[in-house]
Amino acid sequence: MNQVSTIGLDLAKTVFQVHGVDDAGNVVVRRQLRRGEVLKFFRKLPHCLVGMEACASAHYWGREIAALGHEVRLMPPPRVKAYVKWGKKNDAADAAAIAEAVTRPSMRFVPIKAVEQQSVLMLHRSRKLLVEQRTRLANALRAHLAEFGVISAVGEAGFAAALAVVDNAEDRRLPALARHALAPLAAQWRAATEQIDALDRRIVDWHKGDADSRRLATIPHIGPLIASTLAATIGDPARFTNGRNFAAWLGLVPSQNSTGGKQCLGGITKAGDRYVRQLLVLAAFGTIRRVRKDAGVCPWLAALLKTKAPKEAAIAYANKLARIAWAILAKQTDYQAAAA
Questions:
Q1: In the prediction, which pLDDT does 2 show?
Q2: Which of these, 49, 66, 108, 216, has the minimum number of CB atoms within 10 Å of its CB?
Q3: What is 6-101's CATH superfamily?
Q4: Which residues in the chain land under pLDDT 50?
Q5: By the 8 A CB rule, do 231 and 217 touch?
Q6: Distance in angstroms (rounded) separating the CA atoms of residues 326 and 187
Q7: Per-residue b/e over 69-106, b at no fewer than 16 CB within 10 Å?
């Protein structure tokens, strides 16, 4: 056991698989651990390199094992899959592949998130879930009312009129039995709206107290929601070589299928954090709507729209925003229009 230098740990809910090798690559330990045995096992080991896939609960275990003095490295699961031998899919094979992958010099690693980072991002994920649920509730209310000939206009005003029909017991267009069915949906929609507003206030409070998030909010068309997400997601900007590398990490660059010296570019790779990429693209589309009314809002984007389709221009502007965000965090400065 004292010869162990590298360990591959396959995470699970209850049963964990350990694969340990020595400096020569010989297997020293191969065993299963119950959840309560994991920290006891690593507490008895000399300091070594521990590899894990960046999956559910990986950041928690990374922090706990690193606190015992071990060097912990998290890896994207798709990059580890290439090291699974003979196409076997079981916990022992996965742990062996992790132990092999973590020692490769070309491997990319995921930094372990701090508790505060995870907490802030959880606010965003909870908000996103509630927004999706609220949208489904609104669509369901509109569709059910349409079955009785009650058609609501597009937008907030139209939906408010639809809610008024559900709330008004004197409105004979909606039968009493149907009103009883739709009243809980309307109540859930209102509850979801209140919860989203409460989460928004929490996010804004955190944004005001974080220097990096406030710097990111100086970028035009970036508010507290996107700024706080970027600040918590990026963490240490030094792990990216430059802004282009960060944009590629977010999947905002074209995919390639090139051979024989001939380049063939496709759609964006969509790698990395989908939520962050989605927010940046939505910000880009919002800017496009404003540019169509006033080109002075963003001359660079206005010029791009003359030669590119709106979707292509939105992706290009989202890429630009990502690179600006990295530069601001790397240089610890506010946005400067001249430099951008």
A1: 53
A2: 108
A3: ATPase, nucleotide binding domain (3.30.420.40)
A4: none
A5: no
A6: 42
A7: ebebbbbbeebbeebbeeeeeebbbbbbbbbbbbeeee
Take residue 50 and report the two structure tokens written for it: 């521990």
Q: Which amino acid makes up residue 328?
A: I
- Residue 233 carries which side chain, given as an amino acid letter? T
Contact 107, 79 (CB under 8 A): yes
Cβ-defined contacts of 305-311 (< 8 Å, 24+): 310/285
**Which pairing describes strands 6-10 and 49-53: parallel, antiparallel, or unpaired?**
parallel
d(CA 31, CA 8): 11
* φ/ψ (deg, to 5) at 50: -120, 125
Tokens of 276: 């962050």
How high is the pLDDT of residue 125?
Answer: 96
Query: Does the global pTM surpass 0.85?
Result: yes
- Angstrom distance (rounded) from CA 122 to CA 218: 24
Position 100, amino acid: E
